[in-house]
From TrEMBL:
<dbReference type="InterPro" id="IPR001564">
    <property type="entry name" value="Nucleoside_diP_kinase"/>
</dbReference>
<dbReference type="GO" id="GO:0006183">
    <property type="term" value="P:GTP biosynthetic process"/>
</dbReference>
<dbReference type="GO" id="GO:0004550">
    <property type="term" value="F:nucleoside diphosphate kinase activity"/>
</dbReference>
<dbReference type="GO" id="GO:0006241">
    <property type="term" value="P:CTP biosynthetic process"/>
</dbReference>
<feature type="binding site">
    <location>
        <position position="85"/>
    </location>
    <ligand>
        <name>ATP</name>
    </ligand>
</feature>
<protein>
    <recommendedName>
        <fullName>Nucleoside diphosphate kinase</fullName>
        <ecNumber>2.7.4.6</ecNumber>
    </recommendedName>
</protein>
<feature type="binding site">
    <location>
        <position position="79"/>
    </location>
    <ligand>
        <name>ATP</name>
    </ligand>
</feature>
<comment type="similarity">
    <text>Belongs to the NDK family.</text>
</comment>
<dbReference type="GO" id="GO:0006228">
    <property type="term" value="P:UTP biosynthetic process"/>
</dbReference>
<dbReference type="InterPro" id="IPR034907">
    <property type="entry name" value="NDK-like_dom"/>
</dbReference>
<dbReference type="Pfam" id="PF00334">
    <property type="entry name" value="NDK"/>
</dbReference>
<feature type="binding site">
    <location>
        <position position="3"/>
    </location>
    <ligand>
        <name>ATP</name>
    </ligand>
</feature>
<feature type="binding site">
    <location>
        <position position="106"/>
    </location>
    <ligand>
        <name>ATP</name>
    </ligand>
</feature>
<keyword id="KW-0808">Transferase</keyword>
<feature type="domain" description="Nucleoside diphosphate kinase-like">
    <location>
        <begin position="1"/>
        <end position="132"/>
    </location>
</feature>
<keyword id="KW-0418">Kinase</keyword>
<feature type="binding site">
    <location>
        <position position="51"/>
    </location>
    <ligand>
        <name>ATP</name>
    </ligand>
</feature>
Length: 142
């Protein structure tokens, strides 16, 4: 999910293109201004953290772009593309390492496992995703 700062800074295309060129397949995408309640559900595992209120405020500060990307090991590949939670610890070449500085404006969310991805897909895309054959897959996978 591209967070409100990523949308406002015009980084949607840049970010999508990084996932695309890695070989992942886009199966769902939408622009949305999610409610506070929706984001509290999304980040429910962090509800007891001191930064939770400011995280929810940040995430409701503008529209986000929610996406589902498929591919072999997609969740862990996605996390590699993102970089570390703290942008200042993120290597150049990663999204956070290239485009941001503060943890409270770190541009993008990525599911941290296959299990959390499934939970988040159910929350953000209750009507499911669009399955199709990506023709370029034969050039990406052995
Ligand atoms: P990530 O977004 O890398 O999966 P996370 O799930 O641990 O990181 O936390 C969700 C978001 O909450 C993160 O992108 C930024 C914010 N956050 C995490 N740890 C924080 C901290 N120690 N101080 C302030 N904000 C924090
Ligand atoms: Mg996380």
């Amino acid at each position: 999910m591209i967070k409100p700062d990523g949308v406002q800074r015009g980084l949607v295309g840049e970010i999508i293109s990084r996932f695309e060129r890695r070989g992942l397949k886009l199966v769902a995408i939408k622009v949305e201004s999610p409610s506070k309640e929706h984001l509290e559900k999304h980040y429910s595992d962090l509800a007891s953290k001191p930064f939770f209120p400011s995280l929810i405020k940040y995430m409701t500060s503008g529209p986000v772009v929610a996406m589902v990307w498929e591919g072999r090991g997609a969740a862990s590949l996605g996390r590699q593309l993102l970089g570390q939670t703290n942008p200042t610890a993120s290597a150049p070449g990663t999204i956070r390492g290239d485009f941001c500085i503060d943890m409270g404006s770190n541009l993008i969310h990525g599911s941290d496992s296959q299990e959390s991805a499934q939970k988040e897909i159910d929350l953000w895309f209750p009507n499911g995703v669009t399955e199709y054959q990506l023709d370029s897959a034969k050039w990406v996978y052995e």
